[in-house]
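Thread: cobalt (II) ion complex, take 2
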Amino acid sequence: MSKHPLFADWHPASWRGRPAAQQPHYADPDALARTIEVLGRLPPLVVSWEIEALRAKLAAAERGEQFLLQGGDCAESFDDCESDNIARRLKILLQMSLVLLQGLKKPVIRVGRFAGQYAKPRSADTETRDGVTLPCYRGDNVNRPGFTPPERAPDPELLLRGYERASLTLNFVRALIDGGFADLHHPEYWDLGFLRHTPLREAYQGIVDSIAESLEFFESMSGQRVHAATRCEFYTSHEGLHLAFEQAQTRYIARQQRWYNLSTHMPWIGMRTAALDGAHVEYFRGIANPIGVKVGAGMSAEWLQELVSTLNPQQIPGRLTLIHRFGSKHVEQRLPEMIAAVRATGARVLWVCDPMHGNTETTAGGLKTRRFENILAEVEAAFRIHEDCGSTLGGVHVELTGEDVTECVGGARGLREADLARAYRSAVDPRLNAEQSLELAMRIAQRVRSERQRGARNIK
Ligand code: PEP
Ligand code: CO
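Output below.
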């Protein structure tokens, strides 16, 4: 159906001719096929004009005019699909975006890692405990985290349960936003308890007051209430990992004359599935959504250049976001060559820093954690390196939760390794808790503000 010569040999199932990494093994492939058939008939979760609106914003971020805040759980869980948990995730993302807006002085694009972040890549196919080997947990869309054979068996029905929960999540998010939950006039809607007794309280209140003052000033000058700028949208994203599932949501939109993945606004390709000749790159190259690609230490500059030209041959603005995740130890050494490599292709991309996945470590007690200081150090280094290379860091990609968990060490409250067991809930990667997330946003905003002041002094 796609007439463009670049896509003449592409269709939503063309990935099936390539090696597909990280796919679950279903005992009954016919049951999977039946489920995919059902999924393919269900209405979409998002529509193409929303996707295009996001792409236009990401194009503005590429030009340095907006900033992307992408965040949420490493893996959403079906159990957490309940109102309080969803509202708390929105609240912390809204608080962070408020702080970033005030510090960066540019619109913040909010993209949740939610409403479908249910499939996970894993380093091994199986897990062994006390001599028992079972399939690894691959996210709630595939199987369950409990270590028993029935829980670990991939079950196609879960894809339907996941689609329904994604839809419930998105429905609730949309209703909250439509009801004015994200209105900058009412940051008190986003109160998350911890604000009353956090060391960050005064600084946050200062930011809220300054925004209120600016709104008041603008509104009294113009005689109008600022609506357009204060009722921001939320977009969704998830790792496009389970290709049969993603294919089921891929629809041809005649008006746009392109294929779209309508299960999310912005799917991304993970580090483990970015092989050039692999099935994921084949699938992603044909969909019109803005897409992300994780860029890690294992990737060469040539590989990245090939990805850029394969995934955005028409150089469509806002199409390609490169989410680098080198870790604070490697970012200095690896990022400059990657920036240079992409520049050499002549293509424009949006550069985003994921300071989480290159900074994972395991404690002596066997818990996966990340140090706040390393997370912050990587983001700060990324800002500086992009500046030094004449490029722009246009966003951050963070694993976080609105809950008071203890999964990452450090931060204003100085969480230590010994504290982690208290409220460690993640089934996969450790997330920043609400307070640590807000602190990260504040430190980014502070840094940008002081750079701006330094720049202004130098001009004088
Ligand atoms: C993730 O984002 O949860 C993830 C697995 O990231 P990466 O592909 O960068 O390892
Ligand atoms: Co993760």
